[in-house]
Amino acid sequence: MGKKFDYSLDFEHTDFRAHPELYRVGVGEQGVLLVEPYKSELLPHWRFRDPDSARASSERIYAMFLEYRARGDFVGMDMARKFLQMGWTRARRYANHPGGRKYDGAVPAEQRGRSGAHGRLTLPRQHDPVKAEAAAIFYARYLQAREDPEYRRLKAEHQRRYG
């Protein structure tokens, strides 16, 4: 297992394409909205409102994954994989909770930036079939990226070289 995602880096001034040695895969979607220039390249294409937008978005992001793969750019591949994963998880959240709010009430100031309910009540689950379909579209592309043999090879190499 590689090193944990390093949130202490100067993300505002770090070009991870120029410095892939600074990038850590982390867990799940960690760093997805921090790592440049990839965030700026991928974020404009990320949409999950409905199945049509999810399909177009996931296809474009997966095409970018393949472009990064063709260049041997593991960090780009991993960031595209994270955006696909985030499309799946966010659409699932909205499928289960209208408005995307999982918990009742505001997050206490001392708990901001951490995952979990932190003493708040979980809102009742519902089912939005439109968002569920959008989630399924992203999930299929996410699995395709995650299981790509070249992605897996480059991930192992990156973790071996940089921790």
Task: Give a quick summary of the entry.
Residues 106-126 are annotated as: Disordered. The chain has five helices and no strands.
Keywords:
mainly alpha, 49% helix, DUF4385
Counting DSSP E segments of at least 2 residues, the number of strands comes to 0
Low-confidence stretches: none
Report the principal-axis shape. globular
- Helical residues, percent: 40-55%
SSE order, one letter for each helix or strand: HHHHH
Give an overview in words.
The protein is mainly α. It has a domain at 33-102 and 122-162. Helix content is 49%, strand content 0%. It has 5 helices and no strands. The chain has helices at residues 38-42, 51-70, 74-96, 129-146, 149-162. It starts with 37 loop residues before the first helix and ends with a helix. The relative contact order is 0.17. The model has no long low-confidence stretch (mean pLDDT 88). Residues 106-126 are annotated as: Disordered. It comes from Deinobacterium chartae. InterPro entries: DUF4385.
Layout of helices and strands:
Elements: H1 38-42, H2 51-70, H3 74-96, H4 129-146, H5 149-162
Helix pairs in contact: 2-3, 2-4, 3-4
